[in-house]
Amino acid sequence: MHILFITSTRLGDAILSTGLLDTLLRRYPQADFTIACGPVAAGLFAHMPRRVRTIEMVKRPYDRHWVDLWRQCRGTRWDMCVDLRGSVVSFFLRVGRRHVMRGGRREGRRITHIGNLLGLDPAPMPVVWTNAEERARAVSMLPGGPHWVALGPTANWDGKIWPAERFAAVFNALREADPAMRPVILYGPGEGERMRAQRVLAQVPDALDTGGRLSVTQVAALLGRCTLFIGNDSGLMHLAAATGIPTVGLFGRSKASEYAPAGPWARVVMAPGPVGNAPMEGLSVVNVITTARSLLADRDRWKH
Questions:
Q1: CA distance 149 to 135
Q2: Is 203 exposed, middle or buried (0-12, 13-18, 19+ CB in 10 A)?
Q3: pLDDT tens for residues 16-51?
Q4: pTM higher than 0.85 for the full model?
Q5: Domain that holds residue 239
Q6: Sequence-ordered list of residues with C-beta below 8 angstroms from that of 14, at least 6 positions apart, any chain
Q7: Is 122 domain-assigned?
Q8: Are residues 207 and 236 in the same domain?
Q9: How far apart are alpha carbons 16 and 242 in whole angstroms?
């Protein structure tokens, strides 16, 4: 059985789709999978079971990237195509069953829309796939002893970024209650990401700087070693929630009603103001500290 799974260009949306993939993996144990996604998201699927190929879709003028995808897929008889991009490409392929999500933004949580495509209620939670080598490397980078707190101070545009000094203030307040806490700063590749992260690194001098050179799955393995994640609305935030660790997502210029992190221990803190257009500067340190402490307490009670 051959399944073509067309998912997002953006990392965060691709992460939200992994729960649906996990459902298909369990539902069809004899199936193999071809993933079509953007280059940024491609690494997310590196260790996915029964993945035979990832097709990286590089956006081209006049939507020619869809023609490229059709050319790469036309030689296969697909038993199923799941298309989260709302394209027509599957209608020009030999496909048994099609599940095509309607395009455009809609009210409500993105993860719910994804689950609805296969009639799943509740929607399946995202998952991450790492390998033994990545998990061993994570242990060496984040050894036992400290309670590692991951900070995600970057985002895909500056309007979504909480001020650096407030990340430092939150971490320092949390460490007062738990001196074993130590910060680890996570961010993506590129000079822009490094510059944004540096603003927090400069204010938390004992933080571990991961350097922005790790793959998506290497970062996921690191997150699995952490006690807590606090970060802006970003792909990194969704990755943290998918690993199952306590995750606090910070929202102002984006809608938590659509893109809240999805995981067993995920919470959001929203800046006051117009929904989806509230200045991040309005989001208070006290609210983030309170949410983080409450989340950790809930997790501790559940564990015991």
A1: 17
A2: middle
A3: 999 999 999 999 999 999 999 999 999 999 999 999
A4: yes
A5: 132-303
A6: 7, 8, 37, 38, 41, 44, 235
A7: no
A8: yes
A9: 8
